[in-house]
Design goal:
The chain is built from 16 helices and 29 strands. By secondary structure, the protein is of the alpha/beta class.
């Protein structure tokens, strides 16, 4: 192998048309070997001859995209000081744009305990792959949907498309299916403006799951955060997984739909001290991870380790990874899993260096950024405390909506506070209403139909004796546990589902809909289906719970017509955006704000009226002055009708438009 010093930039393996430049960060290594593999798996090694600060680098002429490679990194074995170098283990480039192979449950991936394990694992280790960045975007333009008009749809690439009967069978469950005209048209007709994908960066299944015959389905166990995972590729000849994903993004953009990625920059698949050594642990453990004074891992994620984004080079790696996804894949934003880790120094800080760097970046500051604002570290609950331009998942909206409609334990005032974009949490530091990502459900927890069908979680299939998953879900089975119930129970569940969807899609802030909730998707009470890569999690496209798709689409279309919801400005008293009325059509009095009688009317922009009866009794509700028409899908067969009094069913909601 011929190798020269090359350049310290850009990060990773970069093809220039004549050869490949390799770079690797390691602050504490004493030597770095580049390992190249041919089609037969024969390995060639050469030391990276260049070093600029803590960046090791080298250039190999004549190499081309498709070249498989890895690293062996030499340095001290001193776990109590945080060093776990072991050149017997082939390591994945943290900046790899593609990876071939996965991490099996094999002792060859153990780095060692009292001494480094001497057994070589190259024969079964995943290999990094050189890629070309030559996709023809043909003038692709990002939709750049304003936040005020954004409606997010959280979905899993496989789960969304695996059972779709109108998508060719060989494409189901893949990036090609995601970008298929059938799928794109469905999202467009539903009214979705942004699809948020569960992780697609290359991830592994935990050894514990493999030992039980299960696999990681959600993807929150990454080890190559720049690489498109090939498990969702269709294998079409001549098309790489990266190209297939790029084409899906291109197709979605052509329909005006943004693509957001759920990314995991808080931990890796190397897990705890006895987890597999596959990349960062063997490259520079003491730099990449937060360690305690004994060299053990700070487990602020619940996954065994925590990435140290506060380290300057790890922060630079994170920023470049995000830019890569935007620049090369044209993604429109990110949802950050366990996002307080990004701001740990180690205490969480709203002015943490990474946040400041994102705000200063011309590229990253312009895409949509969403934080999951909690981890399990010290002071880990940070809802409402992320800096602009971040929006945040709002679990308080979720819990309030469920408790108001399903348990009746909250006041009208508490409900209104969440309906009005949670100003107590977000109206500071010039944060607009879109900062609250309103959700009723997400991948983590019950589906919407299960929220109204199960009092308790039923996670026995996960192999943990039902110990996993949240136990406090604010769910309500309406009288009987499970799916096999009477017609009366089903009807009451349907009313609750429609009330919750109306609350979600007609409230101020940014709504996020879980894929399948618009179809009545059920996971049969499993509220932690992270390891269920099967029909339990995959959407059943034959089902549409009594026109629920049309109901949801109508709500989204209505949302886009109401100025108070799309203006993305805080509601002020007397500005005409909102009036809070009682069941007699008069302004709510003090005791009606604070009492637990859940009858309420919300007048938006002077022309759209939401009537709420969250009690167990039928009530007549007097509408405000004027003539009102019940809107589809609320009006039923009598539409259009002009009303002054609405005979509201128990536990129901209706929406009216004022007639000119």
């Amino acid at each position: 192998m011929t190798i020269t010093a090359g350049d310290p930039q850009p990060l990773g393996a970069s093809y220039d048309g004549k050869g490949v430049n390799f770079t690797l960060f390691s602050q504490h290594a004493g030597r770095v070997e580049l390992c190249l593999f041919d089609e037969q798996g024969v390995e060639q090694r050469a030391d990276l001859p260049g070093r600029s600060g803590d960046i090791w680098h080298g250039y190999v002429p004549a190499l081309k995209p498709g070249q498989r490679y890895g690293y062996r990194v030499h340095g001290p074995w001193a776990p109590q000081q945080g060093h776990r170098f072991n050149p017997a283990k082939l390591l994945v480039d943290p900046c790899a744009r593609a990876v071939e192979g996965d991490i099996p449950d094999d002792p060859l991936f153990q780095g060692g305990e009292s001494a480094p394990d001497p057994h070589d694992n190259a024969a079964i280790a995943p290999k990094s792959v050189v890629v070309a960045e030559d996709f023809d975007w043909q003038g692709d333009v990002a939709p750049a949907t304003p936040w005020g008009r954004t409606v997010i749809y959280e979905a899993h690439v496989r789960g969304l498309t695996q059972r779709h009967p109108e998508i060719p069978e060989k494409l189901r469950g893949t990036y090609a299916a995601l970008g298929h005209p059938v799928m794109v048209d469905y999202l467009r007709r539903l009214g979705i403006t942004a699809i948020e994908l569960l992780p697609i960066a290359h991830f592994a299944s935990e050894p514990r799951l493999l030992q039980m015959g299960l696999s990681n389905y959600w993807g929150y166990n990454p080890f190559a955060l720049w690489a498109v995972d090939p498990r969702y590729a269709s294998g079409q000849p001549g098309v790489t997984p990266l190209q297939e994903f790029q084409q899906a993004v291109k197709n979605l953009h052509a329909a005006g739909i943004e693509v957001l990625l759920d990314v995991v920059f808080n931990h890796t698949a190397e897990l705890d001290e006895i987890g597999p050594t596959v990349s960062m642990r063997g490259i520079d453990n003491a730099s990449y991870y937060w360690l305690d004074e004994q060299g053990g891992y700070q487990n602020w994620t619940g996954c065994g380790n925590t990435l140290n984004i506060h380290h300057p080079q790890v922060m630079a790696w994170t920023l470049e990874a995000l830019r890569y996804w935007v620049r090369v894949c044209h993604v429109d934003g990110f949802r950050f899993d366990l996002a307080p880790v990004l701001g740990r120094t180690p205490d969480y800080r709203r002015d943490a260096p990474l946040f400041e760097a994102i705000r200063a970046c011309p590229m990253l500051s312009q895409v949509k950024l969403i934080a999951e604002p909690w981890d399990i570290g010290p002071d880990g609950y940070q809802v409402g405390r992320f800096p602009p331009p971040f929006a945040e998942w709002n679990d308080q909206f979720r819990d309030t909506a469920r408790r108001y409609w399903l348990h009746g334990g909250l006041s009208n005032g508490e409900f209104a506070r969440r309906f009005a974009a949670s100003s107590d949490l977000y109206q500071h530091d010039d944060r607009p209403p879109h900062a609250t990502i309103n959700l009723i459900t997400a991948h983590d927890g019950f589906t919407l139909w299960d929220v109204v069908s199960f009092e308790r979680k039923h996670n026995e299939a996960n192999g943990e004796d039902n110990r996993d998953g949240h136990g406090d879900n604010y769910s309500h089975n309406h009288g009987k546990e499970g799916l096999n119930v009477s017609h009366d129970v089903i009807e009451r569940r349907r009313r609750s589902v429609r009330a919750l969807l109306t609350t979600l899609l007609l409230s101020q802030g940014t709504p996020m809909l879980l894929a399948g909730d618009e179809r009545g998707h059920t996971q049969r009470g499993n509220n932690n289906a992270y390891c269920q890569d099967n029909a339990l999690s995959w959407l059943d496209w034959q089902a549409d719970e009594r026109g629920l798709v049309g109901f949801t689409a109508a709500l989204i279309a209505l949302r886009q017509r109401i100025p108070a919801l799309i203006a993305n400005r805080w509601w002020q008293e007397g500005d005409g955006n909102v009036q809070w009325l009682n069941n007699r059509g008069l302004p709510l009095q003090y005791d009606e704000w604070t009492e637990g009688v859940h009858r309420l009317q919300i007048l938006l922009s002077g022309h759209w009226l939401i009537t709420i009866n969250a009690t167990d009794t039928v009530n007549d509700i007097v509408l405000p002055d004027g003539e009102w028409r019940a809107l589809p899908p609320f009006a039923g067969d009598d539409n259009p009708i002009l009303l002054t009094v609405w005979h509201g069913p128990a536990h129901g909601v209706c929406v009216f438009q004022k007639q000119s």
